[in-house]
């Protein structure tokens, strides 16, 4: 890129940022005086990103944000225990929980989409009166290029390519109870000729993989790759990015699933609880979550992929993320999305436990 183009790009970004700060600081100052918005989300870096980017804007408008930290599964349990009286206003929901929330919408109230202007930068399926998409992860095969070259193994293109005696005991895949467990289990089942209803082919393929470990936290994979304990892992691409940044010569592969799909992703939603009395603030928060500024912050820190098209375009200028993530709309739309309306997750878990316990 020429120097003049870089100058123009820098000037444009600075101008947009200045205008955004002026609008946020003056046009809406005081709008949320005395409002305490309670957000159910993960802890750690996820919460820290919100504290860094979104919280100061809300505080400038007179409000404060409190967090109810935990997994979406744990926060759903709190909601059920409270019989719908949620100890939070807005909640992060996983795609695997769609039946829990969206079959009847009994726990939810409608989102004021007139306040969520960033929907113009989302796909049509990514928002409705009841939910707005917030992020997605691209589940992939992360492999050590040096080890594969040393062993004379070609880069994998499918899960089945990992069935290799040279890789026996050197593969890590997610436990079904982990954050990536359901999506990857379903993807492996599809790739092996099954689907959400028939997961037996997936279990048969998992058995053949002869994995070293079934991980429960993505950070475990980074450690395993650093130590050399594993040569390949099924994990979302963000963890592979972290392993690369930690000095391991890894690459991602978005596995071929079938003739229609290459790669697989899971995604998150933001919803407003029916019991919330802060719907206006919650709608504002959802819009800010989908602002390019915040979407880029968590993408660069964690490898989670934005849903906002403008943020995705911006990521293309990062050489590592552009290499390891799929950032073209055509590619993203070809990734497999699991249809959890067809899934019996309890049955999946029972079958998984019976199979894995025998390994």
Describe this structure in words.
There is one protein chain. The protein has 359 residues and is α/β, with parallel strands linked by helices. It has helices spanning 3-27, 44-53, 55-60, 72-81, 98-102, 145-151, 181-191, 200-209, 218-227, 237-245, 279-289, 292-302, 309-315, 319-324, 329-334, 345-356; strands at 36-41, 64-69, 90-94, 108-109, 132-144, 171-174, 213-215, 232-236, 250-253, 264-273, 336-337. Strands 1, 2, 3, 4, 5, 6, 7, 8, 9, 10 and 11 form an eleven-stranded mixed β-sheet that branches. The longest helix has 25 residues, at 3-27. Residues 1-27 have low confidence and may be disordered.
In short:
The protein is of the alpha/beta class and 359 residues long. The protein has helices spanning 3-27, 44-53, 55-60, 72-81, 98-102, 145-151, 181-191, 200-209, 218-227, 237-245, 279-289, 292-302, 309-315, 319-324, 329-334, 345-356, and strands spanning 36-41, 64-69, 90-94, 108-109, 132-144, 171-174, 213-215, 232-236, 250-253, 264-273, 336-337.
Q: What Rg do the Cα atoms give?
A: 21 Å
CATH architecture of the largest domain: 3-Layer(aba) Sandwich
Q: Give the C-level CATH assignment of the largest domain.
A: Alpha Beta
Q: Which fold name fills CATH's third level, the topology of the largest domain?
A: D-Maltodextrin-Binding Protein, domain 2
Give the rounded overall mean pLDDT.
Answer: 90
Total domain count: 2
Helix content bin: 40-55%
Low-confidence stretches: 1-27
Largest sheet: 11 strands, mixed
Write the element-wise H/E pattern from the N-terminal end onward: HEHHEHEHEEHEHHEHEHEEHHHHHEH
Amount of beta strand: 15-25%
Structural class category? alpha/beta
CATH superfamily of the largest domain: Periplasmic binding protein-like II
N-C termini distance: 53 Å
State the helix count: 16
Could you give the count of β-strands? 11
């Amino acid at each position: 890129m020429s120097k003049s183009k870089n100058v123009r790009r820098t000037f444009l970004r600075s101008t947009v940022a200045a205008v955004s700060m002026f609008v946020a600081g003056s046009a809406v100052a005081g709008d949320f005086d005395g409002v305490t918005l309670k957000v159910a989300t993960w802890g750690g870096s996820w919460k820290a990103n919100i504290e860094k980017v979104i919280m100061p804007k809300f505080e400038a408008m007179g409000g404060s944000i409190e967090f109810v930290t935990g997994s979406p599964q744990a926060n759903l349990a709190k909601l059920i225990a409270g019989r719908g009286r949620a100890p939070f206003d807005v909640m992060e929901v996983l795609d695997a929980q769609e039946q829990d929330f969206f079959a009847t919408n009994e726990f939810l109230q409608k989102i004021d989409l007139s306040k969520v202007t960033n929907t113009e930068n989302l796909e049509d399926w990514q928002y409705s009166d009841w939910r707005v998409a917030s992020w997605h992860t691209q589940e992939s095969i992360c492999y050590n290029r040096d080890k594969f070259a040393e062993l004379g193994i070609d880069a994998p293109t499918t899960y089945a390519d990992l069935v290799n005696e040279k890789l026996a005991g050197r593969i890590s895949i997610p436990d079904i109870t982990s954050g990536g467990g359901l999506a990857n289990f379903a993807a492996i089942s599809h790739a092996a000729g099954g689907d959400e209803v028939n997961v037996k082919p997936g279990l048969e393929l998992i058995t053949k993989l002869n994995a070293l470990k079934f991980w429960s936290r993505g950070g475990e994979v980074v450690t395993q790759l650093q130590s050399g304990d594993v040569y390949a892992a099924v994990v979302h691409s963000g963890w592979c990015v972290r392993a690369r940044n930690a000095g391991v010569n890894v690459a991602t592969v978005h596995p071929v699933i079938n003739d229609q799909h290459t790669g697989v992703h899971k995604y998150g939603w933001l919803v407003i609880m029916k019991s919330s009395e802060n719907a206006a603030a919650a709608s504002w928060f959802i819009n800010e979550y989908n602002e390019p500024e915040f979407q880029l912050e968590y993408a660069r820190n964690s490898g989670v992929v934005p849903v906002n098209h403008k943020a995705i375009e911006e990521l293309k200028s990062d050489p590592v993320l552009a290499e390891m993530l799929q950032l073209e709309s055509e590619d993203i739309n070809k990734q497999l999305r699991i249809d959890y309306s067809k899934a019996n997750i309890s049955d999946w878990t029972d079958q998984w436990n019976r199979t894995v316990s025998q390994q």
